[in-house]
Design brief:
heterodimer; A: 250 residues; alpha/beta; Rossmann fold; 6-stranded mixed beta sheet; 4-stranded antiparallel beta sheet; 8 helices; disordered C terminus; B: 290 residues; alpha+beta; 4 strands; 8% strand; rod-shaped
């Protein structure tokens, strides 16, 4: 008999139902994708370059509409939402881009508080928390530096701080370690892991770095030929790894 | 002291400097055209109002005494404010351009002239003057200035419409240029718009950033344009006054309260046009993304 668990009654953080995507008249990049990410889960998305990882993530952070199918976030089918409702939903999602996408005319601190300014928060409400967050990611001394004066790893940490400053329900990272050295990559993964464990943030990370994937016991979804296959995790218990990432990381 | 937070949009770049110049120049031309239109309108009104109630009576075969008596007769006609017979000196002065300073040949019959001014609001005075002179036994012709003022009035109205059309055209051009520039600015800052969009900024929030930026740009460029227009008008007034002897029929530029109001309103209109154009352009562009 199946044992009832509380999370069975929770709305999925992410749900894709038969989602397909094509750009203009090109071939379908994604074909009939089904995916459910439970709240508080940690997952990897992998696949060869050009397999459609970034396109799939775009659907998740609502930068792209699917050609067919339905994308639901936190139990809300996005195709039925108004533009303002979509904006409100985006505020519950933090995104880390491979190329950082920091605004060059803003300091590290200003880049991080950007989502808070978008939400209309007053600086007096968040200043101390943001400074603590930047200290936590190791940038306490570089708050007022512009991105161009920061190293790749520092810029990536600013981007991560910006993605998590609102304590999002869902964190999406697209190749977050693609531009940093292995040590920094491991430190960043530790950050994601801590966010997941401490705040219960649902995390999905797109990467083709198998070394990183092996460090965390989490479901791995592979995209190939437009199809999504779960390689490990709950559906593939034999493939589970039991490594404690907090011990494995520097 | 903590550093002040920067605007979410970067400071002006070269494109905006060029746009500033274009909007400023358009505002200068628009303000100048508006002032010209207003001056033309004012001159037309003043001049036509002046000649509307004026008549010149020519008495044939009359001497100075008869002319004075005829003037007294005309002064009694209802609706006449003043009736004054021209002196010999005044008549000679009028004919001087044709006959020179030596005066008229004594045997040349010259009509005596009487200047009649009508009271305000008096209509159809000409026929009554003719009738009074006829009844008094005078051989006279009454010339209403308003009849030949019509052509000048028509010309001034055409000039006024032309000036207003130029104002409208310049305003439309300014709005189109601003809309184009906003679109270019949006494309150039697509990265910022994308980041804000993904961070959950509402369309209105993003549009508001561009609206504020272009409102200030329009306001500042409009102010510069209006100030240059003000300086130009001041120079034109000074030049006009220095050679004012034979410019009576030309519109006179002035700087009274309505003129200053035009100059004050110009930057506000430029700012509002820039703001509205920016808002519409950004909202349209954002609707093309999810």
């Amino acid at each position: 008999m199946t044992q009832l668990r509380p999370d069975m009654f929770e709305e999925a953080a992410v749900r894709l139902d038969s989602v397909s995507l094509r750009y203009d008249s090109s071939e379908e990049i994604l074909s009939g994708i089904d995916l459910v990410l439970k709240p508080g889960s940690f997952s990897f998305l992998t696949g060869a370059s050009g397999a459609g990882k970034s396109s799939l993530l775009k659907l998740l952070y609502l930068a792209q509409s699917p050609t067919r199918g339905e994308v639901s976030l936190f139990g809300r089918p996005t195709s039925r939402l108004s533009r303002d409702q979509l904006s409100a939903l985006r505020r519950r999602v933090g995104v880390v881009f491979q190329e950082f996408r920091l605004l060059g005319h803003l300091t590290a601190y200003e880049n991080v508080v950007l989502p808070l300014r978008v939400m209309g928060r007053k600086e007096t409400q968040y200043r101390r928390d943001v400074e603590e967050l930047l200290t936590w990611v190791g940038l306490g001394e570089r708050l007022h530096k512009r991105p161009e004066t920061l190293s790749g790893g520092e810029q990536q940490r600013v981007a991560i701080a910006r993605a998590v400053v609102t304590q999002p329900s869902l964190l999406i990272a697209d190749e977050p370690t693609g531009n940093v050295d292995p040590d920094m990559a491991a430190r960043l993964m530790r950050l994601f892991y801590e966010l997941n464990k401490r705040l219960g943030t649902t995390v999905i990370i797109a990467t083709h770095d198998l070394g990183l994937i092996r460090q965390i016991d989490a479901p791995v979804y592979r995209l190939a030929n437009g199809l999504l296959v779960q390689e490990s995790g709950e559906a593939a218990p034999a493939a589970r790894r039991r490594t404690d990432p907090m011990r494995a990381m520097p | 002291m903590k550093p002040r937070e920067n605007s979410l949009l970067p400071l002006e770049d070269a494109r905006e400097a060029a746009l500033f110049f274009v909007v400023g120049a358009l505002c200068f031309l628009a303000a100048l055209a508006a002032l010209s239109a207003k001056s033309t309108y004012g001159a037309a009104r003043a001049w036509t109002a002046e000649v509307e109630g004026e008549f010149t009576v020519s008495l044939n075969g009359a001497d100075a005494t008869a002319s004075a008596e005829a003037a007294k007769l005309l002064a009694k006609v209802e609706g006449v404010e003043t009736a004054r017979a021209f002196t010999d000196a005044e008549i000679n002065a009028l004919l001087e351009p044709n006959f020179g300073q030596s005066g008229l040949p004594s045997d040349l019959p010259v009509p005596r002239l009487i200047a009649v001014t009508a009271e305000k609001g008096t209509d159809d005075l000409g026929p009554r003057l003719s009738q009074a002179l006829h009844d008094g036994g005078y051989d006279a012709a009454v010339d209403a200035h308003s009849e030949w003022a019509g052509d000048v009035r028509h010309m001034l109205s055409v000039s006024r419409i032309a000036a207003l059309s130029i104002v409208a055209l310049l305003s439309a051009t300014a709005i189109a240029v601003i809309a184009f520039a906003t679109h270019a600015a949006l494309l150039a800052r697509r990265d910022i718009v994308d980041v804000l969009h993904i961070a959950g900024a509402r369309d209105r929030f993003i549009a508001g950033l561009f609206e504020r930026r272009f409102w200030l740009l329009g306001l500042r460029a409009g102010t510069v344009g209006a100030l240059v227009a003000l300086a130009s008008v001041a120079v034109l007034i000074a030049l006009g006054r220095s050679g004012a002897e034979r410019t009576g029929l030309l519109p006179q530029l002035s700087l009274d309260f309505p003129d200053l109001a035009v100059l004050v309103v110009t930057p506000v209109i430029a700012g509002l046009a820039a703001r509205i154009a920016a808002g519409i352009t950004v909202m349209r562009a954002l609707r093309t993304v999810m």
